[in-house]
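FAQ
Q: What does a multi-component entry look like?
A: The components come first, one per line:
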Amino acid sequence: MTEDELINSYPHKHLLGIEGLLPTSINFLLKSSNDYVDYLNNKKNGKLDILKNKICINLFFENSTRTRTSFELAGKKLGADMLNISVGTSSIKKGETLIDTAMTLNAMQPDILVVRHHDAGAVKLLSEKVNCGVINAGDGPHEHPTQALLDALTILKRKKKISGLKVAICGDIMHSRVARSNIHLLNTLGAEVRVIAPATLIPKGIESLGVTIFYDMKSGLKDVDIIIMLRLQLERMSGSFVPSIREYFRFYGLDREKLNFANPDALILHPGPMNRGVEIDSELADDIDRSAIFEQVQMGVAVRMACLKAIIDHKLKAND
Amino acid sequence: MIKKNNPFNSDKKISKKYLLKNGSIIDVIKNKIIKEDLYIKNKVVEKIGKNLSKIVDEDTEIIDCKNLYISPGLIDMRVNISEPGHEHKETIKSASMSAASGGITSLVCMPNTIPPIDQPAIIHSIQRKAREVALSKIFCTGCITRNFKGEEICELHLMKQSGAIGFTDGIKSIENTRVMRRALNYAKSFDGLIIQHAEEHNLSANGVVNESETATRMGLKGIPSYAEPMIVERDLWLVKETNCRYHVNHISTKETVEIIRKAKKLGLPVTCDTSPPYFTLNELSLKDYRTFSKLNPPLRSEEDRLSIIEGICDGTIDAISSDHTPQDQDAKRLPFNQAEFGGVGLETLLSLSLNLVKNKYVSVEKLLRLLTVNPAKILNLDYGMINEQSEADISVFDLSKSWKINPESFFGKSKNSPFDGLLVEGKNIMTFVRGRLVYRL
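Then the predicted structure of the entire assembly, as tokens:
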């Protein structure tokens, strides 16, 4: 592959994770996403036909509103035929194995599968059994690549760069695929990444992924440019990983006081859905100067358009 | 792979005579290699000596064993047979064929069958079946507690009388210290052997791999490595008090080796074994979410692997078992979290162990002790050595024959080997059980 091709294309059949992607591939996807942001911002623009007559299946083994809708919208904007399969109505509930589901869907000859699954590695397993391209929309606590891309795009939009920024990821690092994908992406593009959480939510060996660990919000937030807050799932609260919501918010919830330790222009991100009053102060979440939480959603559609297109382009090139 | 002639001989009536010439007999007691002939007649080793060709009977089959080692048959301390209960994964017959092809002449089956071996009747039933169909000798362990519940102890003494050679709850640790104390205390009264699978279940709950950077990267729930040694450490208090014989199965961590080393120095009646995955592989073979590498205990770090080898070399680890755990395709072709634990090991036990010889960690005669006489001693079995007039359970292997592990060519029913595709040196060529040539490559 020539250098030019490396910079101007995405060289993989699937998008299963950020880990292992070259900076060129990440930058290519971000640049392409950025083009779609401009396109989406112009209300006059109608549907595109880049994915016309292409079949894209959203296969979600886990509940999701924003990611699924975002992919659906992205696909439709590109002119693809979008299908949604969710667990509640499918034969997975009837005991079909993942591989059988994959084979069945494969027989319908889709062009892209967008898959979310509650087990780490499940999307990779599925990708080995189908002929089409697969996009990982979240696999257990492993990776969620499109979320990391949209976070990066949001940061780029506001800060114009990623390299050299100090980024703090706060909250449930242990169970978070968003944290892992973000760590890989931000490190690849040259940011300095910290994680902040109580020790019960920090997984073993996370420092070897290239992060510094902080157990204290105030020292962790010192001088940071970007704060990525993670959702604390309700079942992790009260006694298992943290003793109570009240205690968690006191020490790890983001409020004005703690925010003051960060850079004055620090930007707050959150992959959603938010628990107001658990990990983030409600008023802060709505402050558009500081928080880019709703902007992230907009970026999401553009990023997913770019990813869908990249996978299709790769497929077309492979067929040539 | 096309299988040539049937390499097995299951005819139990005919007792032939064999003369193994020019081989190197491994004397595991004296730790040396003897270059002499070996004459097998009437189920036993009739004579060992030089130039026996002249004295053997006329109808003796003479087998040239030039460049081959003649070892006592292997004794495998930990095998999950799956019959009764999961006959689609493995049966007594298929496990024994698998064992025979791997040079194993005696195997110890774990009690986690369905129904579990928690009463004498089940032992009788398995033994009856084994007499009918098995090529190798099959011994049973019994449960320590009824239905592995960890609450009430089983009829240990009655099971021992019926042939149980040790007691274990298989893949479960006895969690309740009081129950464990009682089991050790009770077994002491009839010199029973308590075998522990060491795992602190509260710590390991839902865990699927070793807790480490690898687990974190892959987003898999880890099991801290100290979940193993802390149970051993606890048990040692009880062993100290009861002085009951205590054996730990498939140890996998550096700390467990250290603790047992220390306990042995204190003279406690403690023994342990490990299995080939723990000295051959480390957690990196989980790459790409390979479910065949999902084992219990999980594959550990490289440091742990090297410590296990050290334990084998300095005698802390007494035995090597296959920890054979057959799983059918459907149990492994799943997302990593959902896949079952375990790998098959009967047909690779000898070769993978011999790799330690190839890599110059240990001599062949010393290594074979861990596969023969040591487990025999722990289990109070009168096998595992080659003496005149002892039952002729023998493995003849070629130390330098190289082959690629291909589970599809295994004789067992399940193919879930974590060593798929590995190149190894050393292969079993012939297996004799009670003087009968049951397998010949």
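Q: Is there any commentary attached?
A: Sometimes. For this entry: Chain B has 14 helices and 20 strands.
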